[in-house]
Amino acid sequence: MKYLLFTIGLIATFAAFAQNGEIHYLYPNRDTTNAPAIFVNLAPAEIASGAVVMICPGGGYTMLAYSHEGNRVAQWFNERGVHAIILRYSLGKFDGTGHKHPDMLNDAKAGFRMIRSHAKEWGINPDMVGVMGFSAGGHLASTLATHFDDGQVDKDGKVIIPSCLPNFCILGYPVITMNDEFTHWGSRRFLLGPTPRDEDIQNLSNQLQVKPQTPPTFIFHTSDDKSVPVQNSIEYYLALRKMGIPVEMHIFEHGPHGVGLAASDPTLSQWTVLLEDWLRRWKVIGAGGR
After folding, report:
1. Which is it for strands 217-222 and 168-172: parallel, antiparallel or unpaired?
2. Rg of the Cα atoms in the chain
3. Quick one: which of 84, 93, 94, 225 has the most CB atoms within 10 Å?
4. Which CATH number belongs to the domain containing residue 201 in this structure?
5. What is the tens place of the pLDDT at every residue in 183-203?
6. DSSP SS3 for 205
7. How many structural domains are present in the chain?
């Protein structure tokens, strides 16, 4: 029932996706109808810092909140001189016949590699490529931050396959754990199917998978989130701290799930101000950004 109510809420509030960026499909020779892809939204050249963030909208691994967790967020970054690339990733089905892990993670890795392989063309610093995710998209972003690989170089040091390790990570009210107590049941079902294996539950509980290379992370959540318990963020924060990863977390007292930029909430919308400060400290927003 929990995941059903969450899905109904998404359907009621999410606007249709307006493709405002140049599209690049992740895999050749695949039907392009809803195929995994990235939508490239480049910041104006006169303020661009060279940094880029790949945005993973939420939607319980069953749909994608392109409007308020994709396009509007991309615009926010572009206005501050940061390139923004929205990831359209694979989705699951209730009965488990749709896409399942590792399809979603493979999409995120492919998107990241595509970004780095186009770095020169798009004016991107390949050492300043971050990932951001909301809700289930936050789970995917944190999965990339903990299940990355280093790519491949030849004997002369030339990059053959770019690394998919993010340089920074931003998480909004993320799903983190697949364990029973605090998971978002819908996300788990659509990611792992109706009868997930114990080893997959543990492997995709990302608070258990933090590595020394996991990137600096910014997290925000609300205490009374009724869909994704705030303990998801708290457990990930503690795991990052234990590993010595720089992390900043902000927990607001009130606010519903799925707020995006929270532009209509004068208190909760402060998360974007806090994020902007954090991005400046990490040099993601350069002197040219707004």
Report:
1. parallel
2. 18
3. 84
4. 3.40.50.1820
5. 999 999 999 999 999 999 999
6. coil
7. 1
